[in-house]
Amino acid sequence: xxxxxxxxEGIHTLIGQHHILQGLSFQAKNEAVTVxxxxxxxxxxxxxxxxxxxxxxxxxxILFQDQETSRLKPYHVARLGIGYVxxxxxxxxxxTVEENMRVAMLREDEATDERLTTIFEIFAxxxxxxxxxxxxxxxGQKQMLAIARSMVNETSLLLIDEPTKGLAPILVDAxxxxxxxxxxxxxxxxxxxxxxxASSVGDYYYILDNGTAVHDGLMTDxxxxxxxxxxYLGISRDA
Amino acid sequence: xxxxxxKKHKQKVTLxxxxxxxxxxxxxxxxxxxxxxxxAGFAMGMLIFLVASGLSIIFGxxxxxxxxxxxxxxxxxxxxFTTLNSLMDWVTSTSLVQNIAAFLxxxxxxxxxxxxxxxxxxxxxxRRVYGLHLFQILILFGTTIVLEELIRxxxxxxDEVMPVPFNFVGNWDIMDIIVLRYxxxxxxxxxxxxxxxxxxxxxxxxxLIVRAGVENRDMVQxxxxxxxxxxxxxxxxGAGLAALGGLAMALFSLQVYPGMGSxxxxxxxxxxxxxxxxxxxxxxxxxxxxxxxYNYVAYLLPPAAVGVNILIMFVILLIKPTGLFAPxx
Amino acid sequence: MAELSPIRxxxxxxxxxxxxxxxxxxxAGLLVLFLFAPFLFPSFKxxxxxxRIVIFATLVASFDILLGYTGIISFGHGMFFGIGAYSxxxxxxxxxxxxxxxxxxxxxxxVFVSILLALVISFLSLRVKAIFFAMITLALAEFxxxxxxxxxxxxxxxxxxxISLPGLFKVSSNFGHVLHLDIxxxxxxxxxxxxxxxxxxxxxxxxxxxxxxxxxxxxxxNVQRAEALGYSTFIFQTxxxxxxxxxxxxxxxxxxxxxxxxxxxxxxxTSIVLDILIMVIIGGMGTLYGGIIGAAFLQxxxxxxxxxxxxxxxxxxxxSLLHTAMERWLLxxxxxxILVVFFFPRGVLGSIQDYMMRRKAGKTLExx
Lengths: 239, 329, 368
Description:
The complex is a heterotrimer of chains A (239), B (329) and C (368).
Chain A: E1 4-15, E2 18-29, E3 33-38, H1 44-52, E4 59-64, E5 67-68, H2 74-79, E6 82-85, H3 97-104, H4 110-122, H5 125-128, H6 139-150, E7 157-161, H7 169-182, E8 187-192, H8 195-201, E9 204-209, E10 212-218, H9 219-224, H10 226-233
Parallel strand pairs in A: 3-8, 3-9, 6-7, 7-8
Antiparallel strand pairs in A: 1-2, 1-4, 4-5, 9-10
Helix pairs in contact in A: 3-6
Chain B: H1 2-8, H2 10-23, H3 31-62, H4 69-86, H5 88-92, H6 96-125, H7 133-155, E1 160-161, E2 171-174, E3 177-180, H8 181-203, H9 205-215, H10 217-222, H11 227-253, E4 255-256, H12 260-275, H13 280-300, H14 305-319
Helix pairs in contact in B: 3-8, 3-11, 3-12, 3-13, 4-6, 4-7, 4-11, 4-12, 6-11, 8-9, 12-13, 12-14, 13-14
Chain C: H1 6-20, H2 22-40, H3 44-69, H4 77-94, H5 100-125, H6 130-150, H7 152-155, E1 161-162, E2 174-178, E3 181-184, H8 185-209, H9 211-221, H10 223-228, H11 233-259, E4 261-262, H12 264-267, H13 270-283, H14 290-315, H15 320-327, H16 329-343, H17 347-367
Antiparallel strand pairs in C: 1-4, 2-3
Helix pairs in contact in C: 3-8, 3-11, 3-13, 3-14, 4-5, 4-11, 5-11, 8-9, 8-11, 9-11, 13-14, 13-17, 14-15
């Protein structure tokens, strides 16, 4: 067994006529948070969607726990133990919080109940809003719900897409706490444009540009590397 | 201030308004006739509801406008026709039990046969055109033609008389009011179907997934549910409901003819537009509205009967283009 | 001297290309064919066939303006055709007399009513989603059919109206011989209708190839972007729909002149829209010329189908299933329709265009 629960090798993804991913390769090492960072349009969200099976790669392959998943349908991928939190959160507004959680559950058994208890410990608000319509939650609460949903099954890998988008700074801190808690239990691949978030929880990074990974390494190294940051992320020291 | 107050009581106001509207015809019609017409209107409404509900569900979840729905309707009627013809003894017998048995067998046959048809249509045809509304409409239109022609080939192009179970015909005389039997039965069927669909949608796991899928299909897939299986099933159920409507309508109008699908499809469309695509409750309300108004107007001013529904449709469209109810309700 | 802007250079290149391309000669050839058809195919049946092709090609092109260029499905196109036909019927027979003035008046009234109705429809279409719109137009079309049949005192009901034509077009007129052909009123009618259809077709071409038409296509492809660019999509779509419907009405009037008899079944029913759909799909959406191909295909098939049936009975006397199937030609068309939508969604012309474009792209890739 390799030390990377997810290995993506040279995938190309086309959306219509647009060649979004042009030979992207990255790994999600066990017991770590891997962050995909980069500017808008670099292909980060598309990468996650391709792993999830929502897009089929035209070339290359994806290996989850050493098993090839490149051509699998999304529901199959999910059942293998990959959870997904999309960019728009995918909350079912007309359903209650409880119903949102229940849709996510693959099995309603004791193991799921135990996981639910842990989830309630991490996400304090969830129990309070259990019977409320999910559409009535605030942005931050919806984001928490989206993440909580992805943990209700036995997942070995969590794909989270830009969770801090549109959140107030204080909520970002809360999110960092939550993710730091979760990373103890499952491997996470995080897509982020917010460098503060990325650097706070990430262990490894891959910089995406034009559909490929142009740089990767330990997050601790990236934090000090101003040249890379300004070149690909548009971050300068003075910002 | 007024606006805020209005919003809070919106539900109550709408309800009162609806009841008032319902009682309006009493101005022009005598109470006894009114009652007969109301029952007839409810019955017609329920029948249309059966057809419209399937259409609404299929659109709500699959985002497919089932232009072949009318054909499913007609096929249901014809399958029921053949079934009842082969159970003639039970149909003509005076025993209520045998009547009901024959009826239920016909219902089962029609539902299952057309559900299977629906599975075929979904797998072979609709699956390739998901998301492409233009092609859906065209292809399902073509499918309707093919299915209608098949009816003509299998059963012949003429009108046929529909056998109706003995005890379903005729009327009851309650305090001088003539209450036709079959409309009551139709109403009961409609209420039952509505009850079952609401139960399934709100209280079962499948219903939960369907309701979630109506909002966000991709997310449901990414959560581990085999959405294509779900789609096929929903399409089959929707088609089955249309078949049920066809059977019920055939018993009501005492005849079957190849073109009956297209005729009632129009009504179903109007109802679904009024009620809101994707909402079963909307279909019910819309159908009742259409049925009642048709009957009242047909009594007061016969030529305007068909037009009144189109008028209502336009009015609703002007006020609330998406229909009365939101999807998934 | 002012420099030519890039757009002008582009247009100049386009118009020069137009005259030199193979397509141009094809179109010219087709025109010549239509012009000399009465001489080439003098039998009554043949002229009727050619005329129907001309009429329906124009009708289909007008439908294509809505479908292919504006991106809107309307099942109500038969209504406008019917309005034109009934207009002609009313003014030339039922409520009027066969005079030239009445003929023009009929067209005028048809256009006027169509504009009103088209505006109503446009107003609706932009408030609701495409699917609603399709359903509404279907409901409207059925409604107008029922109306025509029920109000039989006004409309002639199911029996319809017979039309007598004014002066020049009277069936009995005869202007002598030209090249072995009797120039009857019918022939005069043929050229009149051909001329009208040609004018209409050219107008439609001009419309779609104008800057207005281009904006329209951009709206069809991406509504939000067009609006972001500042175009009032509502006005564009309304004008386009109205235009298409007006043409349909005029064609309806011309049809009435040619056939001499109108009734709800042939002029208002949904089978007309069905035929139009088949023709536009086979010919190719978004290409006005596709209408000619589609119309030719359907009209020829419908005309020679009885002969085909006899032939198949002759060749395969035992295959009774084949006979039944042949009788139910609608079934065959239904299946054909589905197959075409699946495999050739761009129709004959569209597929050819795609093929040509791929060849051209291939060439530029090699040379570039």
